[in-house]
Amino acid sequence: MGDPAAKPTNVRFLIVIVTSLTAIFMYVDRGCIAQLKGVIGKDLDISDQGMDWIMSAFFWSYALAQVPSGFVGSRFGMRKTLAIMLFSWSVCTAVCGLATGFAAMFASRLAVGVTEAGAYPSAAAIVKGWFPISARGRANSFVALGGRLGFVLSQILTPWIAGYPFFGWRGALILYGILGMFWAFVFWWLVRDKAKLHPWSNQAEVDYAGTVPVASQTSETWPVMALLSSRNMWFFGLTQFGSNVGWAFLITNLPAMLENYLECDNPSDRGWIAAMPPAASCLGMFLGGFVGDWCVRRFGLLWGRRLPISLMLILAALAYLTCIMITSPMMAESRSMIRIQDAWLMGIVLACMAICQDIGIPSVWAFSQDVGGKHVGATLGFGNMIGNLGAAASPLLLGFVQRNYGYNNMFLMCAGFFLLASFCALNLNATKPVLDD
């Protein structure tokens, strides 16, 4: 036993920072393609529909690999799994920069999705190994905040880097890949799965984290049937499915809409406007941890998890309904001479949507930690799998609706999916574990 009067060594904060920086790399590699969509399509002679499939490719493989990746983390250790995945998706991002046609680009984006799939489940399990239940919301919010910051950087830096003749879109992707490969070694050096495994932690920090059933490097029974038969987990997955259909518009088609519909021709302007929603998301993620922890203290675990997710999704739906005012034919005709102002206004409204949606994300992560026991990676992976099937369908669904029925109906569809997600969130039960560990 350690000295009862000793203070924790606070290594847990280093773990959160390093894991958050890893999430930055994940979202830079995920989000940069949206800014390069137009130039890649022209350079490789790929149609708009073909580019929609390329934008969707990442999410299909990312979704379907979620649960297997969660189990891999439980079997071999989250630190090892996440470090290998980070290195692998960075290699695949660099390979995207070498693509010569539709097939090569589609395959390489599928590969990025597979190799990123276990990142958030592994990160959630690492957080659980370092923080007690009362502090997980804030820790989760900081890691998720890293992802949104990476999205911001991808929208601002990508047009700037790709604008240099020396780099172009190929050089931008290769540069991102090389930087990610380097960071994989830094992550491996600094991170451990649990406080008691880290050489820099003292006993007080181990005691602070508490006894958490995080599986590592042991043979585990895969709780496939428990996940598939759990009403709780299906509502969890459908909550993420609905919210991802609407949210994925930001990471797939927003830059194209700014350029083609709102006539924002300056790449720098498009980058800054497209960065507004994820920048606002950073605030949402930061606030979400405090909001989620406060709700649990105020309303108990059951409603403390439900309320911040459900209420914020309703507000996000209202933001999408507000977008209809900007893209309505009457408004577009009366303001045809000031389209750039329309573009900035769209960025502001979508930023409000992103804040609302992301305030609930730390509670989504915390829910999987509440019900997952030692299978946190698998439970979060199951929810992420269903959720990212929504993200995969988003560019295809929204692209079809936009081309055939206009932006008004596309935004109406986004609002409807947010409302569906809100209803599902009201049925979550954080007090009911998936398995009795």
Question: What's the short version?
Answer:
The protein is mainly alpha-helical. It has 18 helices and no strands.
Question: What pattern of helices and strands is seen along the backbone?
Answer: HHHHHHHHHHHHHHHHHH
Strand content: under 5%
CATH topology: Growth Hormone, Chain: A
**Uncertain stretches:** 213-219, 330-338
Domain tally: 1
Give the class-level CATH name. Answer: Mainly Alpha
How does CATH name the architecture? Up-down Bundle
Q: How many β strands by DSSP?
A: 0
What is the helix content?
A: over 70%
The radius of gyration is 21 Å
Mean pLDDT: 85
> What class do helices, strands and sheet pairing give?
mainly alpha
Question: Can you put this structure into words, describing what you see?
Answer:
Helix 4 packs antiparallel against helix 8 and helix 6 runs antiparallel to helix 7. The protein has 437 residues and is mainly alpha-helical. Helix content is 79%, strand content 0%. The protein has 18 helices and no strands. It has a single domain, classed as Growth Hormone, Chain: A (Up-down Bundle), CATH 1.20.1250. About 4% of the residues have low confidence. 59% of the residues are buried.
